[in-house]
């Protein structure tokens, strides 16, 4: 797995400043409460990034472990934690190869369509099996994915420009044979002046339909699978843009 996130890690939080992580944490907490396993104490946050969600879940009282492949993103997360009285172990690893012993966690989460980075359905099934293995019996796996319908219709040939105090970001997407290629150009203001540094990188994601995901989860050993339109408790549909899953 390549690491395009390290190129932009230092600026990631500013680029994503409009993301409401408080709402996301509340939503995850609601879904955790719907799982049969009680109580839920220890959570693994897969693709934890710069730690925004991990920190908020820790503040709710959970014991949180963060795992991410990007050393740059983990470096930013560690810097945040050094300024807070919070203990969150951070592990550098590919989420397709989870380095934890069986039944260690009460819950596993993965947010912000991180698992869309898995391009091979067989690898997705294997990842689900590994996640099932590190969960206690009845422990929930909560994650969200962009749908294949969304990629085919909403992300097809998309161009988006966003600006913050110190950055200008340009997203251009192309949909080719089931894969979305996100060509990302970031301009970063130098010393708060009028000159900018330019960074180019490419992200690749595969969309998955709810029916595909439910089938893969069942193959991985999860007996119950619920899917929701993102940030709601309404059923997820084929034509949902993003679907959140609760499996156990």
Automatic annotation (TrEMBL):
<keyword id="KW-0489">Methyltransferase</keyword>
<dbReference type="GO" id="GO:0032259">
    <property type="term" value="P:methylation"/>
</dbReference>
<dbReference type="InterPro" id="IPR029063">
    <property type="entry name" value="SAM-dependent_MTases_sf"/>
</dbReference>
<dbReference type="GO" id="GO:0008168">
    <property type="term" value="F:methyltransferase activity"/>
</dbReference>
<dbReference type="Pfam" id="PF13649">
    <property type="entry name" value="Methyltransf_25"/>
</dbReference>
<keyword id="KW-0808">Transferase</keyword>
<dbReference type="InterPro" id="IPR041698">
    <property type="entry name" value="Methyltransf_25"/>
</dbReference>
<feature type="domain" description="Methyltransferase">
    <location>
        <begin position="43"/>
        <end position="139"/>
    </location>
</feature>
<protein>
    <submittedName>
        <fullName>Class I SAM-dependent methyltransferase</fullName>
    </submittedName>
</protein>
């Amino acid at each position: 797995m390549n690491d395009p996130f390290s190129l932009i890690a230092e600026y990631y939080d500013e680029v994503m400043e409009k993301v409401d992580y408080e709402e996301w944490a509340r939503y995850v907490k609601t879904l955790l409460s719907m799982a049969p396993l009680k109580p839920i104490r220890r959570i693994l946050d897969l693709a934890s990034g710069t730690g925004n969600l991990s920190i908020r879940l820790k503040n709710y009282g959970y014991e949180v472990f963060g795992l991410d492949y990007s050393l740059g993103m983990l470096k930013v997360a560690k810097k945040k934690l050094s300024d807070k009285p919070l203990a969150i172990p951070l592990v550098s690893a590919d989420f397709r190869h989870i380095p934890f012993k069986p039944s260690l966690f009460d819950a596993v989460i993965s947010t912000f369509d991180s698992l869309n980075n898995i391009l091979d359905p067989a690898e997705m099934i294997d990842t689900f099996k590994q996640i099932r293995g590190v969960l206690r019996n009845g422990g929930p796996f909560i994650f969200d994915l962009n749908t294949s319908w969304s990629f085919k219709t909403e992300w097809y040939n998309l161009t988006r420009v966003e600006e913050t105090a110190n950055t200008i970001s340009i997203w251009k997407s192309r949909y080719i044979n089931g894969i979305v290629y996100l060509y990302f150009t970031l301009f970063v203001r130098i010393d708060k002046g009028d000159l900018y540094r330019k960074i180019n990188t490419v992200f690749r994601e595969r969309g998955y339909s709810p029916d595909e995901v439910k089938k893969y989860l069942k193959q991985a050993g999860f007996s119950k699978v619920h899917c929701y339109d993102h940030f709601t408790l309404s059923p997820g549909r084929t034509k949902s843009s993003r679907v959140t899953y609760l499996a156990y």
